[in-house]
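Lab manual, section 2.4: Encoding a predicted structure.

Procedure: take the sequence of the chain (250 residues), apply the prediction step described in section 2.3, and record the output as C-alpha coordinates. A sample record is shown.
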Amino acid sequence: MSFSGAAVGSNLRRAVEFGKTHVVRPKGKHQATIVWLHGLGDNGSSWSQILETLPLPNIKWICPTAPSQPISLFGGFPSTAWFDVVDINEEGPDDMEGLDVAAAHVANLLSNEPADIKLGVGGFSMGAGTSLYSATCFALGKYGNGNPYPINLSTVIGLSGWLPCAKTLAGKLEDEQVKNRAASLPILVCHGKGDDVVPFKFGEKSSQALTSNGFKKTTFKAYTALGHYTIPQEMNEMCAWLTSTLALEG
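Recorded output:
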Protein backbone atom coordinates (compact mmCIF):
# COMPACT_ATOMS: atom_id res chain seq x y z
CA MET A 1 0.00 0.00 0.00
CA SER A 2 1.33 3.46 -0.79
CA PHE A 3 0.27 7.06 -0.88
CA SER A 4 2.00 10.39 -1.28
CA GLY A 5 1.59 13.68 0.47
CA ALA A 6 2.99 17.10 1.19
CA ALA A 7 3.75 18.45 4.62
CA VAL A 8 4.45 21.92 5.86
CA GLY A 9 6.00 22.15 9.32
CA SER A 10 4.11 24.55 11.58
CA ASN A 11 5.86 27.96 11.76
CA LEU A 12 8.52 26.68 9.36
CA ARG A 13 9.64 28.30 6.10
CA ARG A 14 10.33 25.04 4.32
CA ALA A 15 7.52 23.32 2.44
CA VAL A 16 8.50 19.88 1.17
CA GLU A 17 6.85 17.20 -0.93
CA PHE A 18 7.24 13.73 0.53
CA GLY A 19 7.32 10.70 -1.75
CA LYS A 20 5.34 7.48 -1.51
CA THR A 21 4.66 5.92 1.87
CA HIS A 22 4.61 2.13 1.99
CA VAL A 23 2.69 0.33 4.75
CA VAL A 24 3.37 -3.20 5.96
CA ARG A 25 0.26 -4.46 7.72
CA PRO A 26 0.55 -6.66 10.83
CA LYS A 27 -0.02 -10.34 10.10
CA GLY A 28 -1.27 -10.99 13.64
CA LYS A 29 -2.84 -8.90 16.41
CA HIS A 30 -1.88 -5.25 15.96
CA GLN A 31 0.07 -4.12 19.05
CA ALA A 32 2.54 -1.55 17.77
CA THR A 33 3.12 0.84 14.87
CA ILE A 34 6.63 1.95 13.92
CA VAL A 35 7.57 4.54 11.33
CA TRP A 36 10.78 3.41 9.62
CA LEU A 37 13.00 5.96 7.88
CA HIS A 38 15.40 5.11 5.04
CA GLY A 39 18.87 6.52 4.43
CA LEU A 40 20.11 9.23 2.08
CA GLY A 41 19.14 8.62 -1.54
CA ASP A 42 16.91 5.64 -0.75
CA ASN A 43 13.11 5.26 -0.53
CA GLY A 44 10.46 3.68 1.66
CA SER A 45 9.89 0.73 -0.65
CA SER A 46 13.29 -0.92 -0.15
CA TRP A 47 12.98 -1.00 3.64
CA SER A 48 9.32 -2.09 3.55
CA GLN A 49 10.41 -5.22 1.66
CA ILE A 50 12.98 -6.03 4.37
CA LEU A 51 10.62 -5.30 7.27
CA GLU A 52 7.86 -7.44 5.73
CA THR A 53 10.09 -10.52 6.11
CA LEU A 54 10.74 -10.05 9.84
CA PRO A 55 9.07 -12.39 12.38
CA LEU A 56 7.15 -9.52 14.01
CA PRO A 57 3.48 -10.20 13.22
CA ASN A 58 2.18 -7.66 15.76
CA ILE A 59 3.89 -4.61 14.25
CA LYS A 60 2.55 -2.32 11.56
CA TRP A 61 5.40 -0.64 9.69
CA ILE A 62 4.99 2.74 7.98
CA CYS A 63 7.82 3.44 5.54
CA PRO A 64 7.68 6.96 4.09
CA THR A 65 9.92 8.31 1.36
CA ALA A 66 11.86 11.50 2.08
CA PRO A 67 11.48 14.56 -0.11
CA SER A 68 14.04 15.21 -2.84
CA GLN A 69 16.03 18.28 -1.85
CA PRO A 70 19.44 19.86 -2.55
CA ILE A 71 22.17 18.31 -0.40
CA SER A 72 25.15 20.45 0.58
CA LEU A 73 27.32 17.35 0.93
CA PHE A 74 26.69 16.67 -2.79
CA GLY A 75 27.39 20.27 -3.85
CA GLY A 76 23.67 21.06 -3.97
CA PHE A 77 22.75 18.05 -6.10
CA PRO A 78 19.24 16.84 -5.10
CA SER A 79 18.63 13.55 -3.35
CA THR A 80 15.91 12.00 -1.20
CA ALA A 81 16.83 13.14 2.29
CA TRP A 82 15.15 13.87 5.63
CA PHE A 83 17.34 16.94 6.19
CA ASP A 84 20.36 18.65 4.69
CA VAL A 85 23.87 17.38 5.47
CA VAL A 86 26.86 19.68 5.04
CA ASP A 87 29.49 17.19 6.15
CA ILE A 88 29.52 13.93 8.08
CA ASN A 89 31.65 14.95 11.01
CA GLU A 90 31.08 15.81 14.66
CA GLU A 91 31.50 19.55 14.12
CA GLY A 92 29.17 19.76 11.14
CA PRO A 93 26.14 22.07 11.52
CA ASP A 94 22.72 20.55 12.17
CA ASP A 95 19.87 21.39 9.81
CA MET A 96 17.41 22.17 12.59
CA GLU A 97 14.62 23.27 10.26
CA GLY A 98 14.91 20.09 8.18
CA LEU A 99 15.05 17.91 11.29
CA ASP A 100 11.90 19.53 12.67
CA VAL A 101 10.04 19.07 9.36
CA ALA A 102 11.06 15.38 9.24
CA ALA A 103 10.21 14.72 12.90
CA ALA A 104 6.84 16.44 12.43
CA HIS A 105 6.11 14.24 9.41
CA VAL A 106 6.84 11.13 11.51
CA ALA A 107 4.55 12.42 14.26
CA ASN A 108 1.81 13.09 11.71
CA LEU A 109 2.07 9.54 10.35
CA LEU A 110 1.62 8.19 13.89
CA SER A 111 -1.13 10.60 14.94
CA ASN A 112 -4.08 8.53 13.69
CA GLU A 113 -3.09 5.21 15.23
CA PRO A 114 -5.50 3.70 17.81
CA ALA A 115 -5.00 4.79 21.43
CA ASP A 116 -4.05 1.30 22.64
CA ILE A 117 -1.25 0.87 20.06
CA LYS A 118 2.36 1.44 21.11
CA LEU A 119 4.17 3.90 18.86
CA GLY A 120 7.77 4.02 17.71
CA VAL A 121 10.21 5.36 15.16
CA GLY A 122 13.30 3.73 13.70
CA GLY A 123 15.64 4.21 10.81
CA PHE A 124 18.90 3.65 9.00
CA SER A 125 21.73 6.18 8.53
CA MET A 126 20.16 9.67 8.30
CA GLY A 127 16.83 7.95 8.99
CA ALA A 128 18.40 6.86 12.28
CA GLY A 129 19.45 10.48 12.82
CA THR A 130 15.84 11.60 12.44
CA SER A 131 14.67 8.80 14.75
CA LEU A 132 17.14 9.70 17.50
CA TYR A 133 16.28 13.39 17.08
CA SER A 134 12.60 12.43 17.53
CA ALA A 135 13.57 10.75 20.81
CA THR A 136 14.96 14.04 22.12
CA CYS A 137 11.84 15.90 20.93
CA PHE A 138 9.67 13.40 22.81
CA ALA A 139 11.68 13.81 26.01
CA LEU A 140 11.75 17.61 25.79
CA GLY A 141 8.06 17.71 24.84
CA LYS A 142 8.83 20.02 21.92
CA TYR A 143 10.59 20.33 18.58
CA GLY A 144 13.70 22.43 18.17
CA ASN A 145 11.50 25.34 17.06
CA GLY A 146 9.54 25.21 20.34
CA ASN A 147 6.32 23.73 18.96
CA PRO A 148 4.88 20.94 21.18
CA TYR A 149 5.75 17.34 20.28
CA PRO A 150 2.43 15.44 20.18
CA ILE A 151 3.37 11.72 20.18
CA ASN A 152 3.94 9.37 23.13
CA LEU A 153 6.81 7.22 21.89
CA SER A 154 7.36 3.72 23.27
CA THR A 155 10.47 2.76 21.30
CA VAL A 156 13.21 4.27 19.12
CA ILE A 157 15.79 2.50 16.91
CA GLY A 158 18.83 3.91 15.14
CA LEU A 159 20.93 1.72 12.82
CA SER A 160 24.24 3.01 11.39
CA GLY A 161 23.40 6.60 12.22
CA TRP A 162 24.09 9.41 14.64
CA LEU A 163 22.37 11.74 17.09
CA PRO A 164 21.94 15.24 15.65
CA CYS A 165 22.30 18.08 18.16
CA ALA A 166 24.22 15.81 20.56
CA LYS A 167 26.59 18.65 21.44
CA THR A 168 23.73 20.98 22.43
CA LEU A 169 21.71 18.45 24.43
CA ALA A 170 23.55 18.93 27.73
CA GLY A 171 21.59 20.95 30.27
CA LYS A 172 18.29 20.79 28.40
CA LEU A 173 16.91 17.75 30.22
CA GLU A 174 16.64 19.24 33.72
CA ASP A 175 12.87 19.45 34.21
CA GLU A 176 11.45 16.51 36.19
CA GLN A 177 8.86 15.55 33.57
CA VAL A 178 11.49 15.72 30.85
CA LYS A 179 13.84 13.53 32.89
CA ASN A 180 11.08 10.96 33.41
CA ARG A 181 10.24 10.80 29.71
CA ALA A 182 13.91 10.40 28.79
CA ALA A 183 14.48 7.71 31.42
CA SER A 184 11.42 5.70 30.34
CA LEU A 185 12.12 5.54 26.59
CA PRO A 186 13.78 2.34 25.28
CA ILE A 187 16.31 3.17 22.55
CA LEU A 188 18.35 0.70 20.48
CA VAL A 189 21.47 2.01 18.73
CA CYS A 190 23.40 -0.36 16.43
CA HIS A 191 26.55 0.31 14.41
CA GLY A 192 29.12 -1.59 12.39
CA LYS A 193 32.82 -1.14 13.09
CA GLY A 194 33.50 -1.39 9.37
CA ASP A 195 31.17 1.51 8.46
CA ASP A 196 32.97 3.74 5.93
CA VAL A 197 30.07 6.17 5.46
CA VAL A 198 28.98 7.05 9.00
CA PRO A 199 32.00 6.15 11.18
CA PHE A 200 31.48 3.70 14.04
CA LYS A 201 32.52 6.34 16.60
CA PHE A 202 29.46 8.41 15.64
CA GLY A 203 27.11 5.64 16.71
CA GLU A 204 29.13 4.90 19.83
CA LYS A 205 29.32 8.56 20.89
CA SER A 206 25.63 9.07 20.12
CA SER A 207 24.76 6.19 22.43
CA GLN A 208 27.00 7.65 25.13
CA ALA A 209 25.44 11.11 24.69
CA LEU A 210 21.94 9.65 25.11
CA THR A 211 22.92 7.71 28.22
CA SER A 212 24.76 10.63 29.83
CA ASN A 213 21.76 12.90 29.24
CA GLY A 214 19.33 10.64 31.06
CA PHE A 215 18.12 8.20 28.39
CA LYS A 216 18.80 5.33 30.75
CA LYS A 217 17.18 2.63 28.62
CA THR A 218 19.62 3.06 25.74
CA THR A 219 21.11 -0.18 24.42
CA PHE A 220 24.18 -0.09 22.16
CA LYS A 221 25.14 -3.01 19.91
CA ALA A 222 28.38 -3.09 17.92
CA TYR A 223 29.04 -5.39 14.96
CA THR A 224 32.69 -6.10 14.18
CA ALA A 225 32.62 -6.70 10.42
CA LEU A 226 29.51 -4.70 9.52
CA GLY A 227 29.77 -1.85 7.00
CA HIS A 228 27.10 0.71 6.07
CA TYR A 229 24.30 -1.81 5.57
CA THR A 230 22.36 -4.33 7.64
CA ILE A 231 22.86 -8.07 8.17
CA PRO A 232 20.58 -10.89 9.42
CA GLN A 233 22.26 -10.94 12.84
CA GLU A 234 21.44 -7.25 13.38
CA MET A 235 17.84 -7.74 12.21
CA ASN A 236 17.43 -10.81 14.45
CA GLU A 237 18.69 -8.92 17.49
CA MET A 238 16.46 -5.96 16.66
CA CYS A 239 13.46 -8.31 16.47
CA ALA A 240 14.30 -9.87 19.84
CA TRP A 241 14.77 -6.43 21.40
CA LEU A 242 11.45 -5.15 20.03
CA THR A 243 9.57 -8.28 21.12
CA SER A 244 10.91 -7.88 24.65
CA THR A 245 10.68 -4.08 24.88
CA LEU A 246 7.14 -3.83 23.52
CA ALA A 247 5.97 -7.07 25.20
CA LEU A 248 4.74 -8.43 21.87
CA GLU A 249 2.72 -11.62 21.82
CA GLY A 250 4.53 -13.07 18.79
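Check your result against the sample. The chain has one domain: 19-246.
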